Amino acid sequence: MGVTDPAGPVMDRDEVDRALARLGAEHEAIETSLLALQDHAGRRLLEGAELTGITKERWAAAESSITLLWAYFDAYTDALRSAREIRSRRRWSSREDLVELTELLRGESVTVAGSTTATANAPTLLSAPGKLSRQFSLAALVDLMNELYATSLDMVVTADAVWSALPARIDLLAAELQRTRTLAHSVGVRPGEHPSGDDLERITRTLTSLREQVVSDPLAYWLPAQGSSAPGGGRPDTTVYDREARALEEVRREIDAVLTVRQDAEQRLVKLRDVLSRADRTLAEARNARGEVLAKIAATEVPVVSGPPTVLQEQLATAAEYRRHAQWHRLSPLLESLEQKAEDELLRARESLTAVTQPLAVRAELRGRLDAYKAKVARLGYAEDRFLIERYDAARRMLWSAPCDLRVAEQAVLRYQQAAAEVLGAPRVPGQGGPQDRRGE
Q: Coiled-coil annotation: which residues (predicted)?
């Protein structure tokens, strides 16, 4: 839609002809735009819809604007026709004709009457309250039509964009929701019996309400683009839709987990029994080892070994009961919890066994160190050294006697190491004393 030049002095024939050509092109562009608006799918939908909220208010104003647009366009058409008739009176227009044409083309010569309803719904379109007509220049009339057209088109395009985007997506999600509900019912996930069943009911209510609101008040679900003045600048607000789509996806994952449980429940139960059995055997081994440690190792604190937790066996029995009665929605979370607890119990049993047998591991390490030094001494030809034999026998008696005092035995092994190091000419073991004059031993 075009913009005319500002007013000026009396126009000559060439200026009049150029102005009429420009106004004719503007008239054609305006008519094309108005007809496109008239045939716009969004406008037809708005006319037939039962609107509410902000959309109802804005459509009332837009309808008034469109009514005024056609009134202004008719006045513009009449003024242009009059100007063309004056110019066509004679080939060379007289001064009187040029004055009349200048007033018509550049002056406020167009009178537009608006209906009471139209001006009530669009009160800013006329300058004085209660005034049902106004004088315009053709340039001002074009500017006003541009403004009315932009606001009307923005409203129509915005509503059409929301209707084109959201209801179809909501319908697709509702269809997926129905399939999920059918599948959920088949595995016992129902409202009041499983949280996912309650979620499905809530999503159903929300989607039903959302679709009704989108259809009746589409502008309530529109986010305008920041800084954009173009008609329809922005995007549909899909916040509620996206939230419910994510919630449905979470429910689908839960249903998939329940289906997986139904398929491999027996295998998982067997594995659980095996893990708990291994934990029990490990704890029994730890208790036996503790008795052995207490009998063979002296002056050592040995941690107490607790018994297997009966609550896990009870939960395992409950899981087996759920499987027998095909209560998959209850079995699914119980199995996940039990699998983690069983692994934790096996780890605890192994840690108990390690802690209990630590003194035996220390004794075994000392025995290995003592024998390693003895072999080294023998390899270097000192196997018959009386002093080393005495030190070795002393350490060996301590390590192979019961109960064994690990602290005393460790000192005996260190003394043997020190003596072997001196015999072999190596530096003394750091931090340990030892005989400097073996004759005094």
A: 248-289
End residue of a domain, out of 356, 380, 408: 356
Show the domain range for 270.
Answer: 260-356
Same-domain status, 277 and 293: yes
| d(C-alpha 315, C-alpha 38), whole Å | 70
pLDDT band with cut points at 50, 70 and 90 for residue 125: very low
Around 403, how many Cα atoms within 13 Å sit in the side-chain half-sphere?
14
Do residues 194 and 229 share a domain?
Answer: yes
Short-list 335, 330, 338, 333, CA closest to 193: 330
Give residue-wise pLDDT tens across range 182-206: 988 887 788 887 788 899 999 999 9
Q: How far apart are CA 27 and CA 33, in angstroms?
A: 10
Burial level of 14, CB count in 10 A (0-12/13-18/19+)?
exposed
- Structure tokens given for 260: 């997986």
Of 294, 298, 276, residue with least CA distance to 286 = 294
CB distance 173 to 207 below 8 Å: yes
pLDDT digits (tens, 9 = 90+) for 241-253: 999 999 999 999 9
